Amino acid sequence: MPLDTAKRAIVADAYRRTKGPVAYLDESYQTANPVVKPAATFYIFTAVIVVFDQMEELRDGLAKIAEGSWWHTTEALLEDEGRRRTRDMLEFLAEGPEVSVIASRVPIEPNDHDGEDARRACYRGLASALTAGCTGAWDPVDLLVLEERNQSNFQNKDRQNHRELISEKRIPQSTRLLQTSPGVERLLWLPDLVSSAYRRKLTHRDETRRLFEIIAERVHMVESAG
To answer: In whole numbers, what is the pLDDT of the chain averaged over residues?
Structure first.
């Protein structure tokens, strides 16, 4: 069985065992380096919550705007056409009932050179908020779909973060974390889109810093956790 086919089967099985809405997660960050000062660092973890009866409409709409099956917001924002499509996607998302939730840490602690501590804190705050639900905004989530990182040691760190939350009883034991790629589940484009728009608000002074305004009313900010 081809790898993507196997991964799609895993995602489909996870959906069959899910009762509530699904949260799709991705991140954006800026760590300190010779160019970036520690005060300008940040980590953003974003979730977009989608109910089942909206999934196909969202997938179809995103593909039509992208005019294809591949999308990465950071690369799209390098060109005029990509910026137009990014705006169209944000407007498409803003028109629907989907809710975005962002946990951020700004700035990153000076000794957190790779941002992993900030990632952990943001995930803990985000997962706790998602599984608790928010009256009038979203129902409790029991499946978190995270864009998987390329290296297995980083994937293991994300699994460990999730297991710690369960063992500490910060999230229900039934809460599942599924790591997969945007090539398998197009709805992972959504948190990439929102994270990138929020990043531009922090890092840029051109017209792209206003992209976040399109979706801002649909965004809830939550605290990162220790």
So the answer is: 95
Q: Under CATH, to which class is 3-223 assigned?
A: alpha beta
The overall longest dimension of the chain from CA atoms, in Å, is 48
Burial 12-41 (b: 16+ CB within 10 A, else e): eebeeebebbbbbbbbbbbbbeeeeeeeeb
Quick one: tokens of 88? 């169209």
Task: Tell me the two tokens of residue 185.
Answer: 């589940």
Distance (Å, whole) CA 178 – CA 4:
15
H helices of the chain, where?
3-16, 55-66, 73-76, 80-95, 116-132, 152-167, 189-203, 212-215
pLDDT exceeds 60 at position 1: no
Quote the CA–CA distance of 144 and 138 in Å, as a whole number: 14
- Cis, bond preceding 21 (omega within 30 deg of 0): no
Integer Rg of the chain from CA: 17
- Phi/psi region, residue 104 (left: phi>0; alpha: psi -120 to 50; beta: rest), is beta
Compute the Cα dihedral for 124, 48, 71, 205 and give only its sign. Answer: negative
User: Which pLDDT value is given to residue 49?
Assistant: 98
**CA dist., res. 143 & res. 19, Å (int):** 9
Displacement of CA 116 from its chain's centroid (Å): 16
Contact 129, 101 (CB under 8 A): yes
Burial class (CB within 10 angstroms; exposed 0-12, middle 13-18, buried 19+) of 155: middle
pTM for the predicted model, two decimal places? 0.96
